[in-house]
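User: Hey, quick favor. My workstation is busy. Could you predict this chain's structure for me?
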Amino acid sequence: MQEFSTDCRRCPRLARHLDLVRDGYPAYHARPVAPFGAATARLLIVGLAPGMHGANRTGRPFTGDFAGLLLYDTLHRYGYASRSVSVSADDGLRLRGCRITNAVKCLPPANKPLPDEVRRCNGYLAAELYAMPEGAVVLALGTIAHDAVLMALDLKRSAHRFRHGARHVLPRALQLYDSYHCSRYNTQTKRLTPKMFRGVFDAIRGYLGRAPRRPRR
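Assistant: No problem, here it is.
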């Protein structure tokens, strides 16, 4: 397990890519993106990686890009977020009982991290998983996030296949739920609809019990 740092340069290709992005976009965060939310939250949402003009720009997961629209609207609907729209890291939005992270903390070229980059970054995710209370919930957005969670817990993929809406019982009674990623492509092609996404959150809420008290604005 590793202690997260925005100065991490463990992946040479990603570090070089971020150097180039900072040169072209001096106002962008363009560094590893820290998780958002309390480390001991009972719900951890795991995405793929920061988006170029979203988290890579703002420095907060799923903030400022299309993928965050459905995610934060849903989090607000279920009481996990104080607002339905996430615009910037200083917009006042707060999470309650929820944490958001990525399998890979740096922007990858073409939004496609290499397998060895997922492995190098996996220690950060492992530390987040082990900080969670027993019986907590992990929501994996997409296959890469799903597989990264299994890797962090040293579990075999063959025993826990990704499937939208699936639930997997992991060590320490952690519950892994799967959803297609809320990307622009998936939502515009209707591979993932708001109703489908809410269905996963209905299942999570059914497991965790009543919804958390809505954060104050």
